[in-house]
Amino acid sequence: MLQHLPGPDLLVVHEEVREALDAGVGVVALESTILAHGLPHPDNIEIGARIEDAVRAGGSVPATIAVLDGVVHIGLGRAEVERICTDPDIAKLSVRDVGVAAALGFSGATTVASTSALAHLAGIRVFATGGLGGVHRGASETFDVSADLGVIASTPVLVVCAGVKSILDVAGTLETLETLSVPVLGYRTDAFPGFYLSDSGQRVPWRVESAADAARVVLARHRLGTDAAGVVLANPLPADRQVERGLHDRLVAEGLALLEREGVHGKDVTPRLLEYFHDHSGGESLRANVELVLSNARLAGEVAAEVAAQSVGAGAALA
Ligand code: PSU
Ligand code: MN
Questions:
Q1: Less Cβ around it within 10 Å: N or C end of the chain?
Q2: Residues 95, 114: contact at Cβ < 8 Å?
Q3: Using CA positions, which residue lies closest to atom 16 of ligand 1?
């Protein structure tokens, strides 16, 4: 599957990732926008390493994806992760930006959308992140709907996330995922998580109890030819680890007012909000963010390992 990849002038697969893919070992894609634009420096460096460790603890090999000096990297070494975490010139690259950045020699971090697309290109089926982008409040006027949704609708990658933040229109996001034929599975829950909150107040259409069940969904969809879209596996923070409701509601209200005041729009919305939360929650938003990302990475590691094991058993290797 790797022979169809572009040459090293455009894309490089880290040796460990290449070996894992060749050997049929589970591989989990990780996005780099969360490191460059979602978590504060210098904590992001250590957190980046811990996310990769969590994937390994789940039984798979991590592949953090980014564009460095015009080359797409599937899997980063320690120095490269550090560069993503430190260099102020790292852009936020959605799918529409990746080819431009590559052609012009720029460096940037990949979002859920671009990480999914590049993971799929490299033959990686499972992806871990913190929160998905979605439909923004007031989208009927601003048209602000994350490209994450459209790309998941056309890319067969399972994304493990803690739902979407309540700064978004959560119900609208779930409606859109339904329209786009993207299944949403709750991991041991009937409630769609709200990132900092274990329960966004919305239900999930399906529930799975194990990583093995989630992997079975991926394989059945593939064998039935109904896997043009990806899968959202929603993994909530435990109720006793979520951000306290009062603090949460205050942050969301203040964050939305701040966007209005500063006239923030486009791709700067999510990073600006995350920065505000991290600066005004006495460490709580960062604590919860780190915990949920680590939990998602661990679960994704388990799911990818199961997908690898079950594809051998079923004699149905995933293309
Ligand atoms: N949601 C979070 N944290 C994040 C992001 C989303 O809770 O860091 C990042 C992800 O990289 C996601 C991107 O793909 O923001 C979505 O940005 P936008 O809304 O501009 O599409
Ligand atoms: Mn947007």
A1: C
A2: yes
A3: 133
What is the reported pLDDT for 103?
Answer: 98
Atom 17 (ligand 1) nearest CA = 133
- Per-residue confidence (pLDDT) for residue 2, from 0 to 100: 57
Q: Where do the structural domains in the chain lie, given as residue ranges?
A: 11-312
* Model confidence pLDDT, tens digit, residues 47-61: 999 999 999 999 999
Ligand 2 centroid to residue 260 C-alpha, Å = 14
pLDDT above 90: percentage of residues in the chain: 94
The catalytic position among 16, 19, 80, 165 is 165
Residue of 30, 32, 34, 268 best suited for mutating to test ligand 1, as the one with most atoms within 8 Å of CB: 34
- Residue range 140-198, pLDDT digits in tens: 999 999 999 999 999 999 999 999 998 899 999 999 999 999 999 999 999 999 999 99
Q: Please state the φ and ψ torsions of residue 137, each to the nearest 5 degrees.
A: -60, 140
Q: Is 177 helix (H, G, I), strand (E, B) or coil?
A: helix
- Annotation says 82 is catalytic: no
CATH dotted code for 11-312: 3.40.1790.10
Q: What is the 3-state secondary structure (H, E, C) of 180-207?
A: CCCCEEEECCCEEEECCEEEEEEECCEE
**pLDDT exceeds 80 at position 285:** yes
The residue whose two tokens read 């829950």 is 189
For residue 316, pLDDT beyond 60 = no
Give strand ranges (E) for the chain: 11-13, 27-30, 61-68, 71-74, 91-93, 108-110, 126-128, 158-161, 184-187, 191-194, 197-203, 206-208, 231-234
Using CA atoms, how far apart are residues 300 and 151, in angstroms rounded to an integer? Answer: 19
